[in-house]
Amino acid sequence: MSADSAAHRRRRLGDRGSVTAEFAVVLPAIVLVVTLGVGALAAGARQVRLQDAAADAARLVARGDDPGRAHAIVVTAGGAAEIQQRGDLMCVIATASAPLALPDLTATSCALAGGI
User: Fold this and answer.
1) I need a surface site. Which of 67, 68, 90, 112 has the fewest CB within 10 A?
2) Which element (helix H / strand E) includes 50?
3) CA distance 42 to 53
């Protein structure tokens, strides 16, 4: 066995397991980034549903429908509703908790009272 092949073998054996160690260090960071990304997408989707529900609820209340129906629409979107009258407008403020440790989501929509 030559000296070159022995040195090559020592170098090769010295690197053994380095890929596993690097993977073990990087894996938690990848999992964290993916988890935060999925949580942000879920929060965005819930915000869109909440805004649509608030708009539908505001139109119902402005037409004079039962406020219970407006609350039910917001509840099906995963939130809670507060109904306020602001001059000629009927407004619905919908709130829901966000996934992970993100701040609560809020959507507000107003419709002209007695509107068409």
Assistant:
1) 68
2) helix 18-63
3) 16
